Amino acid sequence: MARKDALVNLRAILVRRRDALRSALAGDLSLLKELRSESPGDVIDAAYDSAQDEISSQLAEVESRELANIENALERMKAGQYGQCEVCGGRIPMARLDALPYATMCIECQREVERSGTGAVPRRVGDEAGEESMSSELEL
Ligand SMILES: [Zn+2]
């Protein structure tokens, strides 16, 4: 599959996850349940498993974090920066993006950052869920 097509697919997956997470955070787990039946064994499944009865604050935190990561990834796709390493500007291999759709660094830079400690971790764009993410929602 061409990288561009793969990215389009990945975006569709991320948009669905985002919507499911938003619903779940609003107390509706039906979308997560739906996703779960399609893709067993991922992060959302684990979240869903522990959310059968109620959404604990801890779970909400995990979901919020994933939601922020997804929104960050979608912003980067919109800006044409998705799949590009934030540190060295190199192309992040598709295999890595498949495994880790929110990756913002190539594996070499990721290792470098981990080795040098927390101080060098680049800022996460998705942390500010402001007006910008509202407007992108309309376009997606
Ligand atoms: Zn890099």
Helix-strand blueprint:
Elements: H1 3-25, H2 30-38, H3 43-49, H4 57-78, H5 94-99, H6 107-116, H7 131-139
Helix pairs in contact: 1-2, 1-4
The structure holds zinc ion.
Main sheet record: none
Domain module tally: 1
Question: Separation of termini?
Answer: 22 Å
Low-confidence stretches: 125-140
How confident overall, as mean pLDDT? 78
The strand count comes to 0
Which structural class is indicated by helix and strand composition? Answer: mainly alpha
Q: Please work out how many helical segments DSSP would assign.
A: 7
Q: Residue share in helices?
A: 55-70%
CATH class: Mainly Alpha
CATH fold-level name: Four Helix Bundle (Hemerythrin (Met), subunit A)
CATH architecture: Up-down Bundle
**Compute the gyration radius: what is it?**
15 Å
As a percent range, the share of strand residues is under 5%
Task: Give the quaternary arrangement of the chains.
Answer: single chain
Bound molecules: zinc ion
Shape: globular
Following the backbone from N to C, one meets helices and strands in this order, namely HHHHHHH
CATH superfamily placement = DksA, coiled-coil domain
Please provide a written account of the structure.
By secondary structure, this protein is mostly helical. Mean pLDDT is 78; it is low at 125-140. The protein contains seven helices and no strands. The chain has helices at residues 3-25, 30-38, 43-49, 57-78, 94-99, 107-116, 131-139. The site of zinc ion (ZN) has 8 residues, from α6.
Quick structural gist:
With 140 residues, this protein is an all-alpha fold.
